[in-house]
Amino acid sequence: MASAYAFGLISIAFILSLVLLAEGRNVRNEKCSKEVTVEGCDTVLLGWSFSPQHNKCVKGFACSAIANRFENESQCKKTCPPVSGRRPEIKVLVMWSCQFWLKYGGACQTRWYESYTDKNGRKCRLLYYTGCGAWKHKLYTFDFCRRRCRVYLGRRKKYPPGKPQ
């Protein structure tokens, strides 16, 4: 009796795994599930990464050493195709975050760089960037020396020549 019960459970598990494979749920490359981060790394680069929230590849900044960063969109799409039938889960509150726009705003944001010298005489770069859509007038900065981003609360800087106001 116990062996019949065990055989039944194994059969159900086998059939369920075939169904999940047919639906594409188990074929996701593990690179695609790696968290995209921009803080605490030595080099931040513009590139492509798979966003589980959007269920697609998006252009944005990411640490150069993470597995979920690709040089171009076609590499990302080939490695991390969207999961069919899944609706994107976009959390509106996260859109206020400087990290959100640094990671996912690459296709629509305005951005430029400036330099400054810190108190130790080290030359540092600042990336200024905006959000998109309703957040296109919000200004953020990423400090490459401090390796962190923040909402720019200082006096509103003029955009560099050729940039929209």
Automatic annotation (TrEMBL):
The keyword Signal applies. Residues 1-24 form the signal peptide. Keywords: Signal. The keyword Signal applies. One of its GO terms (molecular function) is serine-type endopeptidase inhibitor activity. Residues 32-80 form the BPTI/Kunitz inhibitor domain. InterPro entries: Kunitz_BPTI (IPR002223), Kunitz_BPTI_sf (IPR036880). This is Pancreatic trypsin inhibitor.
